[in-house]
Model the fold of this input.
Amino acid sequence: MPREPAEPKAGLELLGVAVGDEELYRLLLRRGQLDRRDLAAHPAAEGRDMEEVCKRLTELGLVRETAGGLLRPVSPAKAVEGLVAAETERLRQEVEEAVAASGVVPSLMAEQEAHGTGQLMTPGETIRHIEGLEAVRAAIDELTFFTWTESLTTNPKGVISEEGIAHARPLDERILRRGVHMRTLLGEAALDCPTTLRYARELTSKGAEIRISHTPLERMIICDRSAALTPIDPFDTARGAVLTREPGLVAALLSLFERMWVQAQEFPLEEGTELTDDQGLSGLEYKILQSLCQADKDEIGARDLGIAVRTYRKHVAGLMRRLGAANRFQAALLARERGWI
Done:
């Protein structure tokens, strides 16, 4: 019988995997598959509840259990990729929460306000003209940094260039990681632009809602229903923008956005999906419903879809309300009964 190779020193502990769990994963990699009884015979499983052990290995994304009850290892590359993504997300949230609690940003902004340099608006100011494309981009960057609940955006042209995507991606990802409700309206030209479609699908996979408008759109960005940015000249956005925190103006723009949103159509799902428009679900919602039938933990479902846990839970709660379900299990059953999945 060939000897099993000695385990190397490099391990998964730095990615949050306990030594005993890693030993069992390595055993599965060597054997290909095992049932619970054989796995329980390994010294690393001695004295442990095998139900909890298997559940833990599954939650970590290290193993999959077959219908016949066999445990099979996830490929090392995919397993490590999932662990890195989970650990990165955990550290990012930890740092962001620490920064928010520290008050360092308000402290730094106070330095600007004290000398009247750089801030978007001075105390008591409700409307400001911002001139030039770079100044507008800086304003958008600062607005999104302080957006915590909702981001509403329109793109009348519908087409987003590679350069525009490169600038927008870090801003969009930042607010989506926080679980901010993002809604974006694109002009119909987006349907004929593969670059825009790819980026739009990337955003919907991370929790954004996108619709396509077949009627003219007014360009605007509204953050947390308290601040809005509109172009000085709709036909030449490079000239600059008007930033307002005037409640009446923001409310009017918000009302206009909602009317445009209602008239727009759902963003088209990727080819091969059987979901129909009359079900009124986005591509992400469809994937989440499928996840409810397969993943027993929000953390697992969110990781499989590549979105933040808060975003995943927000959509689950919304689907439960629409289905009239009391819990996740009932939501999955009702979705199947109605033919949603």
